[in-house]
Amino acid sequence: MMALVLPLGSVPAPMYSTLLTHVLIFLCIFSALCLSSDHEIHPLDSLTASELTQVQTIVNNSICSTSCQSLSFHYVGLHEPDKPIVLSWLSDKDSTKVPPRQAFVLARINFKNHELIVDLNASAIISNKVHDGHGYPLLNFAEQSAANRLPLTYAPFIASIKKRGLKLEEVICQSFTIGWFGEQKTKRIVREMCYYLDGTINLYMRPIEGITLTVDLDEMKIIGYRDRLIVPVPKAEGTDYREVKQKQPVSSPIKPITMLQPHGPSFNIEGHVVSWADWKFHLDFDMRVGPILSLASIYDLEKDESRSVMYRGFISELFVPYMDLTEEWYYRTYFDSGEYGFGLCAAPLLPSSDCPENAVFFDGYSMSQDGTPRKLPNIICIFERYAGDILWRHTEGAIPGKVFTEVRPEVSLIVRMVSAVGNYDYIVDWEFRQTGTIKVNIGLTGLLEVRAEAYTYKDQIGEEVYGTLLAENTLGSYHDHFLNFHLDLDVDNPANSFVKTKLQTTAVMDKRSPRRSYWTVVSETSKTESDARINLGSGAAELLVVNPNKKTEMGNYVGYRLLPGSVVNTLLSDDDYPEVRAGFTKYNVWVTPYNKSEKWAGGTYADQSRGDDNLAVWSLRNREIENKDIVIWYTLGFHHVPYQEDFPVMPTINNGFELRPTNFFEHNPVLKVKQLAKVKWLKCCKECRHNLTADIDPLA
């Protein structure tokens, strides 16, 4: 579920009465525009708190009343209706009933993996399947917390801490999934890595290296212990990133910048449906994948109709393999969505810091181990952004005696969530632009995962290096981040095709031109899945999703194209176990026919999975994709070689992609966009000791 939260505490104290007046106007209009408590239920609405409680009651009464020795919930989300049913309801809401509300549940019942479908209308479990295959569901917070406490009362560990001269009360332990490396039989286990505080809150910069504890999560006990070596714990000095802990000198201050909209926002929110400019979309939250954007459509002014662009888009999986082969590190190959829950780790957003003053905030809900709903406050924000960018412009000076200049400022709508998965913070932005473009940006910040070492200077390191020496005894490990996006584009209806357009150099062999070469465009429509597996970076290419059943007045197929940001490919070998599990990283682009059950690229049971149920396996069927309802899977990545500037906290690095209209409109869709209206604003000039009246853009 998501709930709207107004940013009442986010507006800075005014320096003058005029600002206060505008803020009050803003809040009044804001409430009128955005609050809608009586909205109709949408088939794609996430489960409400009361529905989650109902799921808990139904499961407990149906299963635990007779044969339940143990029960733990690991995932609960909307069991979305079939796509044709949703589209039918959307086209005729008056005569079509809202589909039954159902929940999809992954639970451990009597130490077995169960997949449940719970019908909330019938208050009954309508499907209960036992998963006998490989892998386990994502970890929940309760069992991680219980596992993290075990070392602190374990005598061998206490002795190891004492041997190192450390204080037990300053030790914090964290749970790490272990991957899979060819074992025939597996248990549901994690390994505990412990850290040392004592003078800092930046625990990740002070690892206690050399100790490995293995915990059986079902029995909740330590089943393995090894203290292999002792290396110095990195010092606390210089690791605390809090503002109050910074010593002089500090950076030169930046004068305050305020983002206000005195006439209120330009967007409207009714339930989960957001309308802005010509865009309309449904916003959802899921405890596994985070924000889900659905039914994105844009109003075409010339055709006087809303046209579909994307049925559903979300982060399907996030794979983070580390490049350290030591005993305590080789298994660190995380699936942050499928093992830890990308949405489950959503962090509360801070008004005026994570999001500007003009942002609206949403709460979300997940489910605890015992099935109790857990509120996640302020985890998504929506705001309009104007940063001085230009939408389009031209200065015409070729007409004798005249100069014409036309400029349009770029204003866009941002949907943001931050997921704090352990040491890393992932900033996820879905940006909707007036041009019809959807831009996705991923920002990486937070803290590196470092290994404690005896080294204090780079020249002490031998030939086999797994990282960068960032500070004394602190090695920043090489690693990757691969994010796979599930993009179900419906460009003017579901039946679409995938077209690869290559830019090909052609030699001029005759004398028709003094030129020796030029490039031209060669297009190829993919017939099956194997045709559409693409590794980018090998040459210039355009990747299009077109509707082969619709053309523009000029005869071009209407479409959207995928514009990647920085291209990153996996460097792991095909037979490396982490790569087998994360087969979706083998190609940057995959295209599959729509299948409701194929939504998580790493498979349903990512923890200790074996690569036998993931996107790479699904695609082996080589199904037809021409003029079909298709899904684009795009993997963007980061090869992260740490540098000293990443210590003790990382400045944000970014990568992303765009979905941009391609012959979708008959001409430039923002040709008729107006200039931003200007308002009279009272500015206080402290230095001049007098007031100035100026024309200020309302978003400035």
What does the model show?
The model is unreliable at 6-38 and 681-700 (pLDDT under 50). The protein is built from eight helices and 35 strands. Strand 24 (467-471) and strand 25 form a beta hairpin. The longest helix has 18 residues, at 17-34. With 700 residues, it is mainly beta. The radius of gyration is 27 Å and the shape is globular. Among the domains are: 40-131, Nuclear Transport Factor 2, Chain: A; 141-245, Nuclear Transport Factor 2, Chain: A (Roll). The relative contact order is 0.13. One of its GO terms (molecular function) is copper ion binding. Keywords: Copper, Disulfide bond, Metal-binding, Oxidoreductase, Signal, TPQ. This is Amine oxidase.
List the helices and strands and how they pair.
Blueprint: E1 2-5, H1 17-34, H2 49-64, E2 71-78, H3 83-91, E3 102-109, E4 112-119, E5 124-131, H4 141-149, H5 155-163, E6 171-176, E7 189-196, E8 211-216, E9 221-227, E10 267-270, E11 273-276, E12 279-286, E13 290-300, E14 305-321, E15 333-335, H6 336-340, E16 360-367, E17 373-385, E18 390-396, E19 404-409, E20 412-421, E21 424-433, E22 438-446, E23 450-452, E24 467-471, E25 474-477, E26 479-489, E27 495-507, E28 517-525, E29 541-551, E30 557-564, H7 577-581, E31 589-593, H8 615-618, E32 628-640, E33 650-662, E34 679-685, E35 690-696
Antiparallel strand pairs: 1-16, 2-3, 3-4, 4-5, 6-7, 7-8, 8-9, 10-11, 11-12, 12-13, 13-14, 14-15, 14-26, 16-17, 17-20, 18-19, 20-21, 21-22, 22-33, 23-25, 24-25, 26-32, 27-28, 27-29, 27-32, 29-30, 30-33, 31-32, 34-35
Cofactor: Cu cation
Keywords: Copper, Disulfide bond, Metal-binding, Oxidoreductase, Signal, TPQ
Domain Copper amine oxidase N2-terminal: 42-129
